[in-house]
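User: I want to check something. If I give you two sequences, will you return the structure for each one separately, not as a complex?

Assistant: Yes, each is folded on its own. Here is the first sequence with its structure:
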Amino acid sequence: MKAKHKVLCFLIEDWGRDPEMLLPLIYFAEKYCNCEVRFEFTWNIYSIYQKQPDVVLLPNTVGLNLFFEASKYAHQQGIKVFALISEGNFRIDGSSDFWGFNIEKIFYQDFVCCWSQRSCEFLKTKLPDIKDKIVFTGATGFDRYTIYNFISKEEYLTKKNLTQYKKIIGYAGWAFGKLGNKQGLGELKFFFNYDPEKLVWVEKQMYLVESILKEAIEKNPEILFILKKHPSEVNQSIVAECLNEMSRLSNYPNVLYIKEGENLHDLINISDLWLGFETTTALEAWLLNKNTILINPDPNFKRDMNFKGSVIAQDYFSLQKLIDEYYNTKKINKFNEPEHSFYRNKAIEDTIGYSDGFNHLRAGYYFKQTVDLIEKNGLNKKRIFSTKYFIKHFLMVVGRFFYIKRIFIHLPKFKKTIWIFENYKLKNIISLKLKYYSYIDEFYKKLNIEESIKNNTIWDKIFRS
């Protein structure tokens, strides 16, 4: 029996987007590529030197400087790198910086995975020297909407002791809270090309959206409103609460203000309607057959065409009319018009590639090629010690014995390390893995996927579909 290939998977937390996109691929790697996958906290890049894996697995190499550094450090030691991409819906008009934190503009992995054919072709034209390594896999994180079971409305309300509610409306926050801190403000300035008028516009929209939500909450006390904070506002080094379009509404009895710690797919699944200002979560709501409404007091701003798949409410009265229509008829006629349906289908294709649950297998096809190269050529590993990464490792290991959150939160230099000590154990990742593996087992069994993989007929099927 051949020894298993050692895979070291880096995560910044044990829930949310990155585990969602990696766990289906890890399932394929462990079941069909003779791999053993271990998880490591992203701060601890030194573990590459310690554990000497055969493959380093990453959610991306552009969205966080630590992920890029891990890819480079692994490559320097002759270790294979396989990476997905966390935010694959970038614009192809030249306004998006697809390199992100990859400051050297070098991909150290053998394959650059793209969410859509559109983004794949765009990257090939921009990076002709590496076009052969740029591949279209689809977005693996969205496979869960086809494969997994999510919590029901009844279960969720019981869990929260809110069984008096029968109706739920969800709202996905925009990153308005970035206006309230130096780092976030800098990100918004960059996003809007340092146009001061745009920042004034953003602040105005925040207060207008807040006003519309406030009136809807007050006029519909029988409806539970779940307001979900935008994940980019939950910055690793920012612990102070910033004003956004939802934060001042959190004390209403029919409001749940969710900052973190709950799965987005569960919140969408239990909601009757899904609202937002401008949100990619609308696409996820469509995959769960939810009607979506965008609250846009001023709808005339530059954005992706995906917004045309939703219905727009410019004020409270138009929003209330849509809410009433839905609860009276169980549908919104305008949402179901052919034009909106067309843009929803196009958005799914242009954004995530496929919605068939097979994107992790498409990525798995290229992961298997990476493993096959190891089996064919072996690895020329070189152990390269890094003082920088050793110091980070040492501070994490020693610092945990002195960490007291209620003290660190008041110390300017130390509060920026809170996210490290809160997350370094990745304590829930194994239980999440086991939970999701059971769903994938059932999915594979239902569609006879294991046999198709073993006889190699699966690949023609999923790349032709």
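And separately, the second sequence with its own structure:
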Amino acid sequence: MPNRAEILKQKYQDSLGLPLAEVLSEGEIAQVLAAQTMSYRRVLYTPIVVVWAWLSQVIDADKSLSQAVKRVSTWLAVAGETLPSEDTGGYSKARKRLPFEGLPPLLARTAAALQAQLKPEHLWCGRRVKAFDGTGIQMSDTVANQQAYPQLSSQKAGCGFPIARVVVWFCVTTGAVLAAAMAPFTTSEWQLARQLYAQLSGDDVVVADSAYGTYADLAWVQAAGADGVFRKHHARHCDFRRGKKLGIGDHLVVWQRPSQCPRSMTPEVFATLPMSLAVREVHLSIQQPGFRPTQIILVTTLLDPKRYPKAKLAELYQLRWQATEVNLRHLKTTLDMEMIAVKTPAMVRKDLWMHLLAYNLLRTLMWQASQQATGVASRLSLQGTRQQFNHFRPELTQAHGDKRHPLYQTLLLLVSTLVVPLRPHRCEPRVVKRRPKPFPRMQQPRSVLKAKLVA
């Protein structure tokens, strides 16, 4: 008879784990976790059970530890097993024991498995496209978190939250997270992004906003064998009367290495950059109502105007918004990653990567649904997919044998219908209608304010 941990593992794999069955098997998860040489007793919350339970927390509407423990108790009660304690302490300690070093490889495997499913018709000009951007996340206000990720210097002590900077790389086609880097908010986005450039390959094209349209970033991307398409940095002047003309608003120029080393780079690293760089500059005029910039200049190392025409570059940069801004909003708002409610930096890192892994789980489900319906995965609703999946999970758990696969196929069919409508002429003002509550901002630590109330 299977023990309680085996029962829980099977329950999770029969429901939450179905989308990942083809891209991240039980054996692969066990192999990654075993590589961390983690030892544990014959306990209820084994590493694999903790991974599945944590992913379930992220995807659930109720993300509390209590919700996760109650699900475990319910499954064991139905199986006729001895019920565990309703106290969340055991599960919380098991989460702390889970090694962080096992989570990035799991994320990389899910991303690589989705990348491997791309067909030639999914590529842009025969190239894989990666988009990235930076954002900030907050966490619980504890002494340990403040030491590792200090709050903004403009905030008074005890009146702010620890904050970290995160740079996330996405696959433009599947929407999956490919890699991420995290550091204190005082660390620049450039430093974090450059940590990930080494993961690029020769088939990759990287797209990002104007913060990365610099000499150093183009040189780093080219050194990795890839190509970059960035919006021109505001500090760089562009003159289309110079250089080799390729068309209207399209020319080749040679950029010289800046004379001064950027603050985000050490002099030793700066010295390794080439003395000059061939760059193509492309001027785009945006005619779509509602778009804030009407004139955009792209800088790229894609120098061949026949293989990469100006219209294709415009199409590529337009995909950046969906691939980065919208997907970061999914992570921070839809999956509630904007505030990570844990007390230590180690748990912050683990919870962040669990959010990324859960996001990839949903993206895998959306990709499978889009391939069955010959649709486009980026057009499907991530929130709708999450809701539909959460409704199906109890039914998938209870389904037996040959009934589970048809039920999962029905889930994929329903997800494939969750298409976000195209609204090309939608134009909304960037304002907020709802008024905030009339409470003053905290200007003193909570302990001081509480003492004043009881005085």
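Because they were folded independently, the notes below concern the second chain alone. Residues 106 and 196 are 17 Å apart (CA to CA). The radius of gyration is 24 Å.
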